[in-house]
Design brief:
The structure holds two protein chains of two kinds.
Chain A: H1 10-17, E1 24-26, H2 36-41, E2 51-58, E3 61-68, H3 79-95, E4 99-104, H4 114-133, E5 138-142, H5 150-156, E6 161-165, H6 175-182, H7 192-199, H8 201-207, E7 212-214, H9 218-228, H10 237-254, H11 260-267, H12 280-288
Parallel strand pairs in A: 3-4, 4-5, 5-6, 6-7
Antiparallel strand pairs in A: 1-2, 2-3
Chain B: H1 3-11, E1 18-20, E2 23-30, E3 33-40, E4 44-46, H2 48-64, E5 70-74, E6 76-79, H3 83-87, H4 90-106, E7 111-115, E8 118-120, H5 121-125, E9 133-136, E10 141-143, H6 147-154, H7 158-167, H8 175-180, E11 186-187, H9 192-201, H10 209-215, H11 222-230
Parallel strand pairs in B: 3-5, 4-6, 5-7, 7-9, 8-10, 9-11
Antiparallel strand pairs in B: 1-2, 2-3
The chains are: A alpha/beta, B alpha/beta.
């Protein structure tokens, strides 16, 4: 039976994604590792600072896992939240799991502790790349309703693999931020169809910004994740030169597009007008028909 | 300090750094050693093109000049806020820049970041903050957001934030705060060339920002929490 990934809490996602009863939480809420800054502001704090970390198994293979709670400060990265992410990544260097899974749901830097959050995001980026360089794959699983934005959007694109659902979004600046900077004619944040065309899982998949697109279903995430365990893609000069060429070609080919639907048309997607309403598995076939550099 | 004056202070006339739009790039000589210099000016907004242009310099340096040290000069207003850049996945372009800096470090290039004017959020995370160490001029400005904007977002009165920021560097902008939190390794004063030489000679290549933040009292929990995770 389908179990919506996006509607679950971070702790529930971890429990359902991993093998039953295999999860052991590190610094669980009983340890009360909380943000010292939110208390100063008189803002409610959380006993896990909005991120669940620990170890478990997936298909009997050992994994480390982190899951951000979008319901707490939008999954924003503060000092303690970031330090827990760095900790679980560094632990991977010592224990060599089959993968580190990051269930990302975040608006990016937590603005209540802005300076510490900014430094923390860069520490997480470097920790992700340390793990990646050690040949341990870091998998970003993006399926929460709040999406993956700002600093977490950067971190996501530093990982070995990105798996998204069609209910999720991946981007840098939120549409509200862009609208407040340059007006509603630049980006209408209330135009939901536009927001999804621009940042949603389907567009990211068609462009190759996520490696796999799945339904909003825990089992679909589980299947996709299992297939990627142990599949490491360390950075190399050749790899970054290829990435650079791809990003340069993208700019030439699509840099003048006004809307994602134009991008899909130029990509040669069959029936681009049906992309928005289609199912994720239908889209997989559409991308298969694209030139190899976009596959 | 503008970028020309900065380059003059660092290298005298011994550099070929030029401006191309908002990107500055070139090489410089220091004690018989050639450095690659790349960065931005004019409070550049970092869009997909600006990120790629900087990444190109780092890739060229890795490809053609192994081991050559790289100096990243930071002056940015942050990421470009446009629907078109988001459509093109600007976070992938910026992450690419960050990955290039990271691989350069791992491949034996010393990478030093210097905030010489202004550093804001996303534009800073994928350049200066990915260096071996990042430094700042005392008159530079580093921030995520100013207190009035923070007051709006957090719905906390600005005078309350102002009072808190006197004792807690997490809240208010400023290079001194980033120094206290360990995000900035040192402030460069006086003989800037001597500061650069010292940064290049630093043998420690690990990410010690959390430990520095704890030692300097500006970011007290980060290193401790990470250690507790590792101790499990």
């Amino acid at each position: 039976m389908k179990l919506s990934f996006s509607e679950l809490s971070a702790r529930q996602r971890v429990a359902h994604l991993l093998d039953a009863d295999s999860f052991t939480e590190i610094l669980d809420p009983a340890q009360r590792v909380v943000s010292p800054h939110l208390a100063l502001l008189g803002v409610p704090f959380s006993f896990d600072d909005g991120v669940v970390i620990g170890s478990g198994t997936l298909g009997a293979q050992p994994v480390l896992i982190a899951a951000q709670e979008g319901g707490f400060m939008g999954g924003g990265v503060g000092e303690v939240h970031g330090a827990k992410l760095v900790g679980i990544l560094r632990l991977a260097l010592a224990t060599h799991p089959a993968a580190v899974l990051v269930l990302a749901e975040s608006g990016g830097v937590r603005l209540h502790e802005a300076n510490a959050g900014l430094i923390a995001v860069s520490e997480v980026m470097r920790a992700v790349l340390d793990v990646r360089a050690a040949g341990i794959p870091v998998l970003m699983l993006i399926g929460g309703a709040n999406g993956c934005f700002g600093g977490m959007g950067l971190i996501a694109r530093c990982a070995d693999h990105v798996v998204m659902s069609d209910a999720a979004r991946l981007s840098m600046s939120g549409p509200e931020v862009i609208e407040s900077a340059h007006g509603v004619e630049e980006f209408d944040s209330r135009d939901r169809a536009l927001v999804w065309r621009t940042t949603g899982g389907k567009h990211r998949f068609l462009m190759g910004d996520c490696d796999q697109l799945v339904e909003d279903d825990v089992d679909a995430f589980r299947t996709a994740t299992r297939a990627l365990l142990g599949v490491s893609r360390p950075l190399s000069l050749q790899g970054l030169l290829a990435e650079h060429a791809l990003l340069g070609a993208r700019l030439e080919r699509f840099g003048d597009c006004q809307d994602a639907s134009e991008v899909w048309q130029r990509l040669g997607v069959a029936h681009p007008e049906q992309v928005t309403d289609g199912e994720a598995h239908e889209l997989r076939h559409k991308r298969c028909g694209n030139p190899p550099e976009w596959a | 300090m503008n970028w020309q004056a900065l380059l003059q202070s660092l290298f005298g006339d011994a550099h070929t750094v030029e401006r191309h739009g908002d990107v500055i790039r070139g090489t410089a000589q220091l004690q018989g050693q050639t450095l690659a210099v790349v960065g931005t000016t004019n409070h550049a907004e970092i869009g997909v093109e600006t990120a790629l242009a900087q990444a190109r310099v780092i890739l060229d340096t890795m490809q053609h000049h192994p081991q050559r040290p790289i100096l990243l000069l930071v002056d940015t207003q942050g990421q470009r806020l446009r629907q078109r850049d988001e459509m093109l996945c600007i976070n992938r372009y910026m992450a690419h820049l960050g990955c290039c800096v990271d691989l350069a470090r791992r491949s034996g290039h010393r990478v030093i970041g210097l905030v010489y004017d202004q550093a804001l959020s996303g534009g800073f995370i994928t350049s200066g903050l990915m260096a071996d160490t990042c430094h700042a001029l005392p008159e530079a400005e580093i921030r995520v957001m100013r207190l009035p904007a923070m007051a709006r977002v957090t719905k906390i009165a600005e005078d309350v934030l102002q009072a808190l920021s006197l004792s807690n560097p997490v809240f208010a902008p400023g290079v001194e705060n980033y120094l206290a939190m360990g995000g900035i390794q040192s402030l460069w004063r006086g003989d800037l060339q001597a500061c650069l030489r010292a940064a290049l000679a630093d043998p420690d290549l690990s990410d010690r920002r959390a430990a520095l933040g704890a030692a300097r009292g500006g970011r007290t929990r980060s290193a401790e929490v990470t250690q507790r995770v590792l101790a499990t």
